[in-house]
Amino acid sequence: MDKDIQQIKLVSGNELLCEVVEWPDEKSDNSTDLIIRNALSIINGDINGENEEGNTVFLFKPFLHYVDKSSQFVSLSKMQIMSLNRPDRYLQKEYMSAFAEFEKSSFERDLDYKEQEMYEVSMVEEALEETKIDDKTDNVVQLNTKILH
Predict the structure, then answer these.
(1) CATH of domain 5-124
(2) Helix, strand or coil, per DSSP, at residue 6
(3) Is 63 exposed, middle or buried (0-12, 13-18, 19+ CB in 10 A)?
């Protein structure tokens, strides 16, 4: 099944490329949201300060920070959409390549986080082992029962 890649211009002026997973139900008055995923904002900018040739450079960045996995979905209100179109094959290819890079770095970030988490757990376990009371040590305090108060 082909992906439904759309280029969307929002009323805020932001522009994004995304895969539309579910369109609003036109038969229902309550359905006002598109369900999208793999959303990337298109921004213009320069590489290394100034662009010597005077050309505009377009860059991709995640539409929402840390929403950079294909398994994450976003609800987008159709009331916020000014225009949309199906991008040409070249832009779709660039978009797919860019999202693959974002997803790869997200996977690496998750691995780094899990490694850090495992290290912290091992440090806590090590500290607990050091403070563990030896079974041979008597940890019961004996009271002198001969003294009366």
Answers:
(1) 2.30.30.100
(2) strand
(3) buried
